[in-house]
Amino acid sequence: MGSLDTNPTAFSAFGDDASAGFQPLNPDDVRSYLHKAVDFISDYYKSVESLPVLPDVKPGYLRNELSSAPPTSSAPFDVTMKELRASVVPGMTHWASPNFFAFFPSTNSAAAIAGDLIASAMNTVGFTWQAAPAATEMEVLALDWLAQLLRLPSSFMNRTGAAGRGTGGGVILGTTSEAMLVTLVAARDAALRRSGSQGVSGLPRLAVYAADQTHSTFFKACRLAGFDPANIRSIPTGPETDYALDPARLLEVMQADVDAGLVPTYVCATVGTTSSNAVDPVGAIADVAAVFNAWVHVDAAYAGSACICPEFRHHLDGVERVDSISMSPHKWLLTCLDCTCLWVRDTHRLTDSLETNPEYLKNDASESGNVTDLKDMQVGVGRRFRGLKLWMVMRTYGAAKLQEHIRSDVAMAKMFEDSVRSDDRFEVVVPRNFALVCFRIKPHGGGMTEEDADEANRELMECLNRTGKAYLAHTVVDDRFVLRFAVGSSLQEERHVRSAWELINKTTTEIMQDKIVAAVE
Amino acid sequence: MGSLDTNPTAFSAFGDDASAGFQPLNPDDVRSYLHKAVDFISDYYKSVESLPVLPDVKPGYLRNELSSAPPTSSAPFDVTMKELRASVVPGMTHWASPNFFAFFPSTNSAAAIAGDLIASAMNTVGFTWQAAPAATEMEVLALDWLAQLLRLPSSFMNRTGAAGRGTGGGVILGTTSEAMLVTLVAARDAALRRSGSQGVSGLPRLAVYAADQTHSTFFKACRLAGFDPANIRSIPTGPETDYALDPARLLEVMQADVDAGLVPTYVCATVGTTSSNAVDPVGAIADVAAVFNAWVHVDAAYAGSACICPEFRHHLDGVERVDSISMSPHKWLLTCLDCTCLWVRDTHRLTDSLETNPEYLKNDASESGNVTDLKDMQVGVGRRFRGLKLWMVMRTYGAAKLQEHIRSDVAMAKMFEDSVRSDDRFEVVVPRNFALVCFRIKPHGGGMTEEDADEANRELMECLNRTGKAYLAHTVVDDRFVLRFAVGSSLQEERHVRSAWELINKTTTEIMQDKIVAAVE
């Protein structure tokens, strides 16, 4: 046997200079690069307030700043950092800016960033329990903790103790879209089985439902899962329900589909729509869906975080009767991207559709049935250790601080709302449920039409965003152009909201003055 | 008008103690928490070599170590870090360990971790160009750089300069599975349109193809996209092609499906299968697929990274004739999770299926058609700034160091392979293409059967993994239990490979000795 010990000199891959090789995790480099990154972040957070929120760059700008071809040789890390500062930062839309009021904020915290950093360094891939026991169990624990903060029924919680697995459980995914997709697929497959479909032959008969205010990504997820575009129902809403889904209307639409030979399969209810923060009535929707044995998913991506406060929890009333719920701590629970939590009442309904069992991943723990293999609850196999940052946020700040964070944002939004309401030129378009204020310049003064107001609002938004001192996005509610003012960027303080209101006030005065001058001329 | 200026005292959300509020990004905390995290990482990398690679913990262990309920009050960050060290680290499977030889390594580097850290802190959400111009353009640039390193045809590259968008382009996703899913959906929709299907009525007639060695996640992605399980073809392979897909066999299967009235839609070719690193012949497969107008995707998740070296590039020959290719720098290009690069020859075929256009995301840049909105090339809407870490890796290390990294891993694998080959007790089961060695104890000595050898190999793997000094996974090739020895963990040096071989050598001697004793008794 020519074992190694008998011929050690032949056993070298590199010859004599092996020790001089490239070490991508050289300890000095790791420490030095990360300290430089921390310095950058520290400087960035200090200066971001003074940077234009929305950059003034043209498409393709970066290609003119950086080399169009990759370098052959290595460079000192300082060169990389210099290019980051000189070329990348000036082209960023600064989501971390306290003057960012667009979309929903991507909130963040020191604990979350530290947790994410450690996850990047450990770089574990927790597809099975065995491949990362602590990462899997930390994710399970973090989800159970958050479920408790949200007062979700225990039927949604993981059970991996001595009693073995129950049917409830959760998983951390990258986006709400993935949560929708995996539950849609589970509901689809269950409906096909129930209807005795051969393979997917019954797919053209399945129908899915959501309010027209539901995020566009839901309708996309339905198409990804193969639902027939003709059977994806976008149910109209209106001011009579503050743009929430009307259960009576849902019942009519589902019954009509049954009468036409279709199979109602899935209903998506939203708690806090992206457009205007409408809240679909979860319990009433669950009752309607139960008539048809359809899966009900609750998308609480943004507003779910608020439900850790008792005063907002009622928005989830009825959740004990739905099949799944998702919310994204990367939106409003101080946990940096990406982190979407999905809980389901019966994980077997997910794993029936999503389980894989290749030889190279087989192991005793999985075969014992006593562990959760999280790959079987998501689209892919690989996965970051996302549970760490979420746990670190809850462990470090505790429930009280997290509630304080929500309440502070809501209080600032209410303050802004009060200012809008106290100014006759504006109207608040829909009731403010959380920390988003939907408002607009309303027709005022002589002869100003709704169309004139739309134009003024569009002009106001563009003027505000061009200043670099604030960034607001818009929506359309009831055919009217509406400004969305979303409070909550994690560096935001009351003074930033105050300044934004002053800027809106002043800019509106200028716009209206210009319009009067133009009309007179 | 009750503007703010006229009534400033009323404009406070919190009253007098506003300044005492909770600041999740307090500058002192950010710096302090991140420095503690860097210290942890530094210590971790120094000590991980001596930690058991595979932990000795039982399912549910973490719940016994940590509180089962979230804390109400905040705690010093040191408490969080202490629990991390005391309870989480001992339950980790250490992918960063230099003694990790399982699966494929998740390689990493100082530059990547720093880039990922900065991305976490900036926390930008680049769904549209306007929402993050620099993040979008950095991703486009990084993909073009990597395409150049891989010598992909320019038809796969992004074009966002003055000439406007071409048809080629790429996107960074979380996993290969997502790359498969979005291209499957694009191919599915195109096939349905071509076949004149009403909605998805034609879906049960579409068929998809891959070798039986293709990753299980491909077959799962097909089911997610709604393909009929009966039409998902897993084509047998064997030793005559070293477990690569035989184009002649593919042609037969596709033709038989056409003859049976099915519509061949998509073929997945793998460059470097997970089980044994087989390489499907890309060009020949593209030629077969072209006969049927089927989409061809190349999954080069692991081995794609090697193709930055001229001596491995031939494995991608013919790629200019495929529709899409994906590879994961988080596997073998020193970029921490998650980072999967997907390039497609015609991005419109992706965006036709994946585009959304809700009112609240509309903006002038998107409407100009001169920018890439990356949400339209992925499942979800939200997305991390993943391009930064990938660019930082290429910018800092340069092509030469990255090639050195690949060659060093391959040289160590070859060294290991040579040791195996020089020992009569073992056999190398398939040719080693990259840095994975598939080997096993072969029947040797008096009367040892193949089944005995399978049992000995299983025992060898379990013994090795129980020592904590090495972690290997297995596969099954041609019905034989085979050990996979994957070189490349980023802290790995030649001495670790040497130690692992010595351990394998010694453990095998012990196992065989025990068997002889048992036989004699």
UniProtKB/TrEMBL annotation, chains A, B:
GO terms for biological process: amino acid metabolic process; carboxylic acid metabolic process; phenol-containing compound biosynthetic process; primary amino compound biosynthetic process. One of its GO terms (cellular component) is cytoplasm. PANTHER family: GROUP II PYRIDOXAL-5-PHOSPHATE DECARBOXYLASE (PTHR11999), TRYPTOPHAN DECARBOXYLASE 1 (PTHR11999:SF157). The keyword Lyase applies. Pfam families: Pyridoxal_deC (PF00282). This is Aromatic-L-amino-acid decarboxylase. Its cofactor is pyridoxal 5'-phosphate. One of its GO terms (molecular function) is pyridoxal phosphate binding. The lineage of its organism: Eukaryota, Viridiplantae, Streptophyta, Embryophyta, Tracheophyta. Coiled coil: none annotated. Signal peptide: none annotated. The modification N6-(pyridoxal phosphate)lysine is found at residue 331. Keywords: Decarboxylase, Lyase, Pyridoxal phosphate. Belongs to the group II decarboxylase family.
